[in-house]
Amino acid sequence: MLFALSGCYMAPMALLGPASSGFTTTSILQSAATNTANHLIEKSTGKTINQHVIEALKNDDTFKSALKN
Question: What per-residue confidence (pLDDT) applies to 14?
Fold first, then answer.
């Protein structure tokens, strides 16, 4: 029975790992820079970065041929 229940406590621990380690200054600065860049690009072009990537991939011949195979 112990073997059957051994995974029960591991799932919550996976969620606690990042929270217990805390945030580093680098990760906070990187997140802020990324969010600022995303906001500025969306404000100036009307599209998110993801929309730009999807559009570029749709127009890319290499990507189109990879999807066909």
Answer: 53
The separation between CA 21 and the C-alpha centre of its own chain, rounded to angstroms, equals 19
Residue 34 near residue 26, CB atoms below 8 Å: no
| Chunked mean pLDDT (size 10), the chain, 69 residues | 49 51 77 92 93 88 72
- 31-to-9, 26, 27, 59, 66 alpha-carbon distances in Å: 30, 8, 6, 29, 32
Q: Torsion-angle region of residue 47: left (phi > 0), alpha (psi -120 to 50) or beta?
A: beta
d(Cα 68, Cα 50) in Å, to the nearest integer?
22
Helices (H), the chain: 2-5, 10-21, 25-45, 49-58, 61-68
